[in-house]
Amino acid sequence: MKLSVYPLLIVISLLLMGCPYQGEVELCTYEEALKVDKDLIGDWVAFHENGAREEVSLEKIAKSVLSVSHREYNEKSQLKNTYKYRIYATMLGGEIIFTVENKDGKYMYSKYAWMGKNVFYIQTVNQDYMDANFAPNDPKDKDELIAYFKENITKEKMFDEKLEFYRKDSPEYEKVKVFMKKSGF
What's the pTM? Predict the structure, then answer.
């Protein structure tokens, strides 16, 4: 267990160094979005190497839309930040991509996939990559963004590192929690 989780924790800590890209357009509308993956509904936790964690609660609010309550805790389990989003998915280049709508009317984008019954990961689109390759000052529309994503979806540098979420109170969650405790967190 120690050998497989420790590299994961290093990767998760690198995610904090990344900066998610925020755009002006959505990849699809609520009506065009894929049906909600019902297995995502519930409470999830991601652990960081320094003992900090992120918790998300996902709730279905429409056929294709999830409401996300996101809480960040520091290494002392003190609440640092809270966020609210709406997410909805589309399929681009064989990947499921979420449009993440924040309260400011901006959009972030992330791909997700299942790693096991109670574990999924997300990877947000990287701001630096988009700045260098997508010319953010030029006005872009939905079709241009979709075409760009389809062309570049397989490029690892387009995305920040994976952040793994464990279903709260699942066996996988308990294993990581025990490992964190044994590691002094």
Answer: 0.83
Which structure tokens are listed for 171? Answer: 């066996």
pLDDT higher than threshold 80 for residue 152: yes
User: What confidence score (pLDDT) does residue 134 get?
Assistant: 86
Report the alpha-carbon distance of residue 104 to residue 65 in Å, rounded.
18
Gap between the terminal Cα atoms of the chain: 16
Could you give the angle at which helices 171-182 and 2-15 cross, rounded to 10 degrees? 90
Q: What band does 110 get if pLDDT is binned at 50, 70 and 90?
A: very high
- Closest by CA to 120, choosing from 173, 73, 75, is 173
Asked if residue 124 has pLDDT above 60, the reply is: yes
Residue 84 has pLDDT above 90, yes or no: yes
Torsion of CA 75, 79, 84, 88, to 10 degrees: 20
Distances, alpha carbon 166 to alpha carbons 4, 56, 64, 119, 161, in Å: 15, 10, 22, 5, 16
Alpha carbon distance 169, 45 (integer Å): 9
Whole-angstrom CA distances from 123 to 45, 88, 140, 183 are 15, 15, 22, 26
For residue 26, what are its two tokens? 């959505």
